[in-house]
Every structure is written in structure tokens, then in C-alpha cells.
Batch of 3 targets.
Target 1
Amino acid sequence: MKIWIAFWNILKKDIKNYYLKPPNISWGIIFPLSWTLMQIIRSSGGMNLSDIRELLPGLMAMSVLFGTTSMLAVTITFERKGRSFDRLLLAPIPLSAMVAAKLSGAVLFGLFNAFVPVLFAAFFVSLPGINWGTLLLAVFLIAVTSALLGLTIAVSAKEVFEAQTFSNFFRFPMLFLCGLFFPISSLPVFLRPLSYILPLTYGTDLLGRAILGTGMLPSALCILILLAFAAVLFAFCHHNIRRKWIL
């Protein structure tokens, strides 16, 4: 019970101090909205509005990726600089519970970001036939792996600007390598292996199957690979935090 109370208080503190701030909420809305509107404006020049649906998997995955990695990488780095993260490590709770609590805020923020493009796309096109169960699972797994990527960056960076630089170093190549807006099969042959070592590739494939009914890989395989990525990244972050600040 004490662990759950500590978990809830850490999560509540992060939501209040970081995620519910007006700039972050507006950023979470404006960023996905701007990309959605950009594609809608682009569609009016030669693409049918109904084709906006085909862009939803990429828009949702990108919204989750940028939202979770940006917030967690910056907030953890900021807390480390202010020594509040060090004080949190002294709390009498398991390190894994503390890490999970810090991740939970970013995951919830990513879930919020993911459905902004869906909401606005629904005003322009109908969205029948979506497998909502697979969609929710895909968004959740993308949010978890992206949050863990942000935490990995945060424990490696010393300054906020370093965290932002490292985040962009990973995020922008993913826009082109993970099949967000064009198929991996259209990439040069020597780049395709890189696509399959990135977790976002499998999350985007799951979203494509849920929304469009198409995908490169079986859903079960994508889910297992994303869970494996999450386990490896969590273990890596846990080990790095223990090595740098506890041992």
C-alpha cells in the first residue's frame, strides 16, 4: 500500500508541475493539429480528403513519440540539475516503482497526444472499421517505449539542451525509417535493416493494421517485439540510475 501511495504522489506531482501546465497542454494540441492540418491542406491540392485516414497511423505515432520523449527527457534533466531527482532517489520505495511512476506521466501525456489527430480527422472524414482494441494497445506500447527512450536520454544527458539534442538525434531519423508516412519497402536496401531495430516501426505497423487493416507483420509478433523493447529499455534505465546515483 505504501508503494502505491508513493507511486500515486510522484505521478500526481509530475502531472501538476509539468504536464498540466498550459504551454505543455497547448503544445500537445498544436503540434499534432498542425501536422494534421498540413496534410489536409496538402490533400486539397490533389489528394482526396478520404486519404487523410491513411496518414493517421503516422500522425498518431509521431505525436506520441515527440510528446513522451520531449517531456520526460527535459523534466528528468531539469530535476537532476535542481537536485530534486537525487532527493527522490532517497525515498524509501523500490527504484523500479519510482521509475514506473515517472514514466506513467509521460505515457498518459502521449496517450492524450495520440488522439488529437483522430479527433480533428473525424471532422473531415468518416472513420468506420477501426479496431479500437488494437489501436489502444498500439498507442499504449508506443507511449511506453517512447517514454523509456526519453528516460534513457535523460539519464545520459547533463543539461536540458543536451537532452533536447539527443532526443532529436533519435526522433528525426525515425520519421523516415519507421514507415510513418511511406512504406519501408521504398527505402534503399541498406537502410531497411535499421528500420527493424527501431520500436516505432512495430508500433506504426500495429496502428496501420488497426486503422487501415494492413500491416507488414502479424500483430502478435509486433506486440511481443514492443514488449521486449520495453523490458530491455526499462532494465537499461534501471541499471544506469542505480549505477550513477545509488551505488
Target 2
Amino acid sequence: MENENINQNNIKSFQLVIASKNIHKIREIKTILNEVIPNIDLLSLIDFPEYIPPEESGTSFEDNAKIKAIHAAKALNRWVISDDSGLVVPALNGEPGIFSARYAGDKATDSDNRKKLLSKLADLSDNDLYAYFECCIAIASPDSLKKSVCAKCEGRIETQERGGEGFGYDPLFVKHDYNQTFAQLKAAVKNKISHRRKALDKIAITIESLAIAK
């Protein structure tokens, strides 16, 4: 990882808010960041129940990540990190894409979204099952956006759900060079190879720099 040479002893307590109420996403981000930045103090929007997130009106994952980070940072007067991510199936014109979390409707469950995707897959051939997860992460201060990064994890879609771990579309996604879905892999394995891990690796050096300068 590009931030391995940072001296952790130089990192002082630094508080960062994860702009999400999704407990699965929060858990993944905390687990990954705590591996590389042990002294960081991570909160989430669960700690700020009165805060109302903005509408995700962007046309890309990166747009939405920026919108969420900037809005929360200003409203909470804190440093904020946000994540916008989802599954992209090129043969379905990029669906579910930025609508991954609400693919089957605004109040859809993960199961509802997977069922809708599986119904769409029925019209595809095996050669059209290529897909990728994309994750974009943005970090902002109360004054401005500091940085945003994006990363992908490529693989294929399964036509039947497999596995009980993970969340979202994990039971349907198999990363290239793997035989198990994300929902069959142990969390420790997934957290080393996922799109979210790749994006967090890219932005970790920025977070560490902020923590050291704090």
C-alpha cells in the first residue's frame, strides 16, 4: 500500500465522520481504515441523528460522493469522508449503477434489488455477465472538498445467489480470479480485494497527512 511508510507514532487523534447510516458500509470502512490508521477516531451519521443527508442528485458515483461529503462537512462542522458505490453491468446499459441502493424502488431492500437484477439477467447470455463494482470516496472539511478518488473491482454476475456474508449485491458477484461470490468470502478476505478497499487505499495517505498535521 502506498502509505505503508508513514510513521504511525506521528499520527495524533483525528476525528473523521463517515457520511453514512448503512451499518454494513460503516463497518467495512472502519475495519479497513483502522488497519492502516489505528489512531483515527471514526464516527458516522448514526452519531448525528438530527442530520438530514442531501439528495444524491449526481450523475456519477463520484458526483454523489462529493455531494455527500461537502454537505455533511459543512452541516456538522467536521471533517467528513463519504462513499458512493454500486454495481455496474455494461450489458444492461450500466444498470443498476448509481441507483444500486434503490434499484427496485426508494424503499427497496437488498433482496428486492437483487431480485430485480436477476430478472434482468434472464435476457442475457453467459458472455454478457461481465460486471464491476465501483466505489468513489470523497473527503471534505467544513470549508471545502479536499480530495476524491474512485476504484473498481471487476468480475462477473451469477444467475443464482450464493453465500450469506456481505450485503447488497455480494451474493451475485464473483471477482475475477475467484470462484466464490463476495457473500461467500470471509469479511477479512473481501476487505483486502474489494472496490471499497482499493478506493480507501488511494485516499488513506491524504487522511494520514491530515491526521499528522492536526
Target 3
Amino acid sequence: MRKTMMAQLALVAVVGAAPMVAQGGGGMAGMPGMAGRGGDPTTKVVGSGQLPAGWLMRFDPPGAGKPAQDIKEISFVTMGDGYHFKSGPAAIYYNPKDMGKGIFAVSATFHQAKSMQHETYGLFIGGSNLQDSTQGYIYFVIRPSDGSYQVKVRGGNAAPPRVAAPPVDPAIVKDDPKDGSALNTMTIHVAKDSVHFLVNGKLVKGMSKAELGRATDGQVGIRINHNLDVHVSGYGIKK
């Protein structure tokens, strides 16, 4: 399977401010989140205050005047063949051992049992300084409610600019009209001079590293926006 995936990626390449929180950590101090802006309040989640062994997280800045989030406002647990997330405020999740360098691919399958409405989820690469105000990373997220995706680059605590966001892409499996469920496998493949964003094995966007404007080496991980209930399996890096 690994050889097949890397062969597909090779073909694509040709054509195409809060401290971090560890397992058992306490509240998130001093970092506000994107959650709850305008008429989009954040769902109340009561978590255990624990993360799976080895994992860290960081909330998004909530905005001026908003209280700091607490790790108990999310639930992130090992479940079955992977991990299950319920949020709560938007955040990134990562294990320090998962580092990408040079040519590599990070992939995961996301399964929602019901519609997540306008919210997005996905993967990130190129993470650095994730514990302080100079944090930075590149992230790729999808929104199955309408089949759209976004690529953004975060640098510091300011709102990250959107570098790619077409309306929809047919590769993305949309919410099932009966029960709102959706299953999508996402991959970020980093080549020598370019980065490829794939969903279900199909290229939805290819960009040069110069277009992205940020180094791709660094921490990789998972991004979960607010108000989500999603299972993640098959997460890992292939080099």
C-alpha cells in the first residue's frame, strides 16, 4: 500500500499566544480563539483535561477581550483504530515525534457521523514555535458540507491569510443527504519545489513552495476547528 501511495504521489508531482498543552496539562493561559465570533457560538464540551500520550495542542487566538480557553473544553481521545475529537474551541494537535523534512507526505482519514455544517478540519505541516507568539504552519482543511477546501499559512497570532480556496472540488465527499455523514482521506505531499494537496487520492491543489512563502520542514499534525465531532484514522507520515 505504501509503494502504491508513493507512486501516486510521484505521479502527482510530475503533473502537477498560549503555552502548549501536554498530556494532563492545565488550562491554556493567555491565548484567545476564533471560536464564538459573531453569531457562531462555540459548543460547550466537557473533556477530561487529558490528551493521548505524547500529544500536545494549541488553541487558536479567540479574539480581544475573550477569556483564555481550557483544555477541558475539548475532548481528544484514542478510540478504536485512531483518535476521536470533539470541540470546543478550534485548535491544532500534534505529537513532537511527527516531523516532516525534505520530501514527505502526511495523511489521515476523517470520518464525521453527522454534518459538521460550515466547519472545517484537516492537516498541517511546517510547524514551528508552536508554543509561543511566533507560531507558524501551513494548513489544509476541507468543508464537506459544500465540498470546498482552504489552504492557509499562519504566522504569529494574526488571522492567517488564505492562499487557496476555490468554491468546491469534486474529489471531496460531501455530506450524505440522508444523515450528514462523510468520509474523506486527506494528504499533503511535499516534493522538492512544490506542495500537493490531495483528497481521496486526487489532486485538488498544487502550489510551489515560493507561492506558499513558508518553509515546509517542521512539525506536522491535525487541525480541528470549533464545534466538531470527527474520528481520525490512518494518521501518519510517509517519507
